[in-house]
UniProtKB/TrEMBL annotation:
Function summary: Formation of pseudouridine at positions 38, 39 and 40 in the anticodon stem and loop of transfer RNAs.
Chain positions covered by the region annotation Disordered: 280-299
Listed name of the protein: tRNA pseudouridine synthase A
High-level lineage: Bacteria, Bacillati, Chloroflexota, Caldilineae, Caldilineales
Keywords: Isomerase, tRNA processing
Active site: 68
Residue span(s) of domain Pseudouridine synthase I TruA alpha/beta: 22-119, 167-279
Protein's GO biological process: tRNA pseudouridine synthesis
Gene: truA
Binding site for substrate: 126
Keyword Isomerase listed: yes
Enzyme class, UniProt record, top EC level: isomerase
Length: 299
């Protein structure tokens, strides 16, 4: 090896390798999901491309959740090993400077080698947003809401929220969710749902819209999710709220363990990965906003 090349290699080797964990938010509308795919924009691919423009990553960016195409996140957790001689703050600022406007690194911390964003997690929380149109029944009803369609499912008629919560209660606990999701090859379809609840989003603002709508949110926490499981569950719960499904029909579909028994999954637009949960002492972001000792967050 020529002397100049040896010197360059020594300089590179002198740069410490940082195992960094980032809290990431994104609007998934323009992306084909989190996981890298050749020839199409993905969250993982965009994070890696941005990092390569100013640093030297020595591993892939690994995420806690493989969100589907069109799904959003406010609390995705990713980790990457990167050669970096400067501060965490400068790494965070540089990364954000090279990312598009629909992806943001909200916080950054250094984590121990034993940490894995996906396999160290013990649970995940998703929220699904629904906008119920307020147009009176005496008028023709619209089919969309330009101000909410990007982040919520548009529902043209009122829903029975109490009935939907009764249905959601049937999902809590440990069940075989084969009807409502697709496992990775060889994986079990049994999951434990700790939280499943619909809420009406209240506001103190005086309504100025002549036909004010209603915002609903479904919060679900489980020790793991099958592919499209949240959207499939929401699709079934909405059928209950519309009066098309009874509680008995939902319970029967759950027990059938048959994918064909589920209604179509709800649109990805309303789904947000809100939080990834880790065991005490291993959670990189205690408050979910990057505010941890030794961490960095945007100024």
């Amino acid at each position: 090896m020529p002397r100049a090349a040896r010197v360059a290699q020594v300089v590179v080797d002198a740069i410490p390798t940082l195992y960094a964990c980032a809290l990431v938010a994104y609007d998934g509308t323009a992306y084909h999901g989190f996981q890298y795919q050749v020839g199409v924009p993905t969250i993982q691919g965009t994070l890696e491309e941005a990092l390569q423009r100013f640093a030297e990553p020595v591993s892939r960016v690994v995420g806690a959740g493989r969100t589907d195409a069109g799904v959003h996140a406010s609390g995705q957790v990713v980790a990457v090993r990167v050669r970096w001689r400067h501060s965490l703050e400068s790494l965070l600022q540089a990364w954000n400077a090279h990312l598009p406007a629909d992806i943001s690194v909200r916080g950054l911390v250094q984590v121990p080698e034993g940490f894995h964003p996906r396999f160290s997690a013990v649970a995940r929380t998703y929220r699904y947003w629904v906008y119920v149109d307020g147009t009176p029944a005496t008028l023709p009803r619209p089919r969309r809401s330009p101000l909410t369609d990007r982040y919520a499912l548009f529902e043209p008629r009122p829903l029975d929220v109490d009935r939907m919560n009764q249905a959601a209660a049937l999902l809590r606990g440990q069940h075989d969710f084969a009807t409502f999701g697709q496992p990775t090859q060889g994986d079990s379809t049994v999951r434990r749902v700790d939280q499943a609840e619909w809420q009406v989003v209240e506001t103190n603002l005086t309504p100025l819209d002549p036909f004010p709508g209603q915002h609903l949110v479904f919060t679900v926490t489980a020790n793991g999710f099958l592919r499209q499981m949240v959207r499939a569950l929401v699709g079934a719960l909405l059928e209950v709220g519309r009066g098309r499904w009874s509680l008995e029909m939902l319970e029967s579909a759950l027990q059938a363990r048959d994918r064909s028994q589920a209604p179509p999954p709800a649109s990805p637009a309303g789904l947000v990965l809100e939080r990834v949960h880790y065991p005490p002492g291993l959670a990189p972001f205690d408050g979910g906003d990057g505010s941890v000792p030794g961490g960095a967050r945007p100024a």
